[in-house]
Design a protein that fits this description.
With about 280 residues, the protein is an alpha/beta fold. Helices cover about 45% and strands about 15% of the residues.
């Protein structure tokens, strides 16, 4: 199983070092991917722009949106062009995770109908397929036929979308047991669609290491997920705060069949990259 690391693009106070130095250290440490988390109504860095910056200072590491809230990008041709640009510039390193999201405030501020997001997403996926195939002259072309693509979500529609349009499915967290249940549904949908092989499956987790591990998890993850109420405390408690907990999370997802686990931070300090690498190697 590959192990990636999230950029702290959605951690309060993120700055240039939290993207550029973080990306350089992550590649040097051997992580498989750099991930981003998407949101509009928050003081986070926008995902595609953050990944474009990371692409400029790296050569090997993959660049993953995990996930990007696609229906908020109502100009699908522009979204196709932005994704293809990053994929082309990076030599085919983009992993485009897409989902409709679930935060109504992001939709309200964007002037997009929250209750029609599923239908809008279905239309976007079909349009992206056409645009990347060369219809309507939108360029540049992706590095290959299209960027690697993954669909997030746990609804039946999400698994059908992954099987119809994507290379696989990405889990929105919840631990190894929840991932395993979702993976079974993703594989079943893949087979029902008549796809060869099987879907590539991704998962995410959170970590917070070092002297301020508990404080950072509570202050930053707790703040980011305050919108979900009491469940924010579950996310804070579930973050790996010791090397042993990191290894347990990795082992659990590997046993559950994940192809890649991306570990997202609760701090903008680039030293977290080295602490995670050390935890994995100890």
């Amino acid at each position: 199983m590959d192990v990636g690391i999230g950029l702290p693009n959605a951690v309060r106070g993120v700055d240039r070092a939290g993207i550029l130095e973080w990306a350089v250290r992550a590649e040097a440490a051997g992580f498989s991917s750099l991930g981003t988390i998407d949101r509009i109504v928050y003081s986070n860095y926008e995902s595609l722009i953050a990944l474009a910056a990371a692409a400029a200072v790296t050569e090997r590491i993959r660049l993953a949106t995990d996930i990007l809230i696609a229906p908020l990008r109502t100009n699908t041709a522009l979204l196709a062009k932005q994704a293809a640009t990053i994929d082309n510039l990076s030599g085919g390193r983009l992993m485009l995770g897409l989902a409709p999201g679930g935060r109504e405030d992001d939709y309200d501020v964007s002037g997009v109908d929250f209750h029609r997001r599923g239908r809008a997403f279905d239309a976007q996926l079909a349009e992206l397929e056409r645009l990347w195939s060369g219809e309507r002259g939108v360029g540049p072309p992706p590095h290959d036929s299209r960027p690697a693509m993954f669909i997030g979500g746990r609804s039946d529609a999400a698994f059908r979308r992954a099987a119809r349009y994507a290379d696989g499915w990405t889990s929105g967290g919840g631990g190894a047991e929840a991932f395993a249940a979702g993976r079974e549904q993703a594989v079943a949908a893949w087979r029902a669609a008549g796809r060869d092989g099987g879907p590539r499956t991704l998962a995410l987790c959170y970590f917070s290491l070092g002297d301020r591990a508990e404080e950072n998890a509570r202050d930053n993850l707790g703040h980011y997920y305050a919108i979900v109420g009491a469940y924010a405390e579950v996310i804070v408690r579930g973050a790996a705060k010791t090397p042993t907990e990191v290894r347990d999370l990795v082992s659990g997802h590997e046993q559950a069949g994940a192809d890649e686990l991306i570990c997202f931070p609760a701090s903008t300090d680039p030293d977290q990259v080295d602490l995670l690498a050390a935890a994995l190697s100890s």
